[in-house]
Amino acid sequence: MTQDELKQKVAAAALDYVKDIPLIGVGTGSTVNYFIKMLADYKSTIEGAVSSSVGTSERLKKVGIPVLDLNEVGTLDIYIDGADEINPRKQLIKGGGGALTREKIIAAASKKFVCIADGSKCVDVLGKFPLPIEVIPMARSYVAREMVKMGGQPVWRENFVTDNHNHILDVHNLDILDPIELEKTINDITGVVCVGLFAMRPADVILVSQGDEIKSW
Ligand SMILES: O=C[C@H](O)[C@H](O)[C@H](O)COP(=O)(O)O
User: Per UniProt, where does substrate bind (predicted)?
Assistant: First the structure.
């Protein structure tokens, strides 16, 4: 099976989690894009969705699902999103597509976060995938220097601006042995808007497609 076929397979498995739920949170990325396409057939049960990016909002509207403001909706029953890396404790690296801040907000405001991915995203220790950090533009170099002090190699994602008009640093070479501690430490750096480490609020359910199987934990 190709990676795209695996993404489609796991996206289809996520549909079971949104049956009979009127309001859902929807993440960003190529895996979730398949899920959104499949949602077209579920229009009758889903009345609206809170979206994690401008791109996702456009896709949701295309399949006829109204996009709602999180402030109007309150707590969501379910949030479906992908990930760049997943460890056995359901902790994640996210933000490869730059949507980490809104994704983290929706995850925080949701009762159940279901993370969907193909098997290539599973690791024992997070950090092979460069860790995205959204920063206020004027703080970019300062935050980069702080990350160098922590042993990382930050790379500015040039020619990319987030939906919140900020910049992204992708930090290479971090061996993330204590994800919660690192998330707290990076959160404390002035100028950081959000780090793409989802450790304090991990996923609740992981669905992973591996060959013909869907593994969940
Ligand atoms: O900002 C992007 C998100 O965190 C995505 O969920 C993540 O990058 C995974 O995307 P994909 O499904 O394309 O691998």
Answer: 28-31, 81-84, 94-97, 121
Whether residue 147 has its Cβ less than 6 Å from ligand 1:
no
- Spatial CB neighbours of 128, under 8 Å, sequence gap ≥ 6: 85
Measured in Å, residue 62 CA sits from the centre of ligand 1 at 20
Going from the Cα of 133 to the center of ligand 1, the distance in angstroms, rounded, reads 14
What ipTM is given for this predicted complex?
A: 0.97
Catalytic residues: 103
Which part of the chain has CATH 3.40.50.1360?
A: 3-123+200-216
- The fold of 131-196 is Alpha-Beta Plaits (3.30.70)
Where would I find the H helices in the chain?
Answer: 3-14, 30-39, 54-62, 70-73, 100-108, 140-149, 179-187
Instruction: Judge if the beta carbon of residue 86 lies within 6 A of ligand 1.
Output: no
Q: Is the CB of 98 under 6 A from ligand 1?
A: yes
CATH class for the region spanning 3-123+200-216: alpha beta
Question: In tens digits, what is the pLDDT along the chain, a chain of 217 residues?
Answer: 999 999 999 999 999 999 989 999 999 999 999 999 999 876 568 999 999 999 999 999 999 999 999 999 999 999 999 999 999 999 999 999 999 999 999 999 999 999 999 999 999 999 999 999 999 999 999 999 999 999 999 999 999 999 999 999 999 999 899 999 999 999 999 999 999 999 999 999 999 999 999 999 9
Output the CA 116–ligand 1 centroid distance in Å.
10
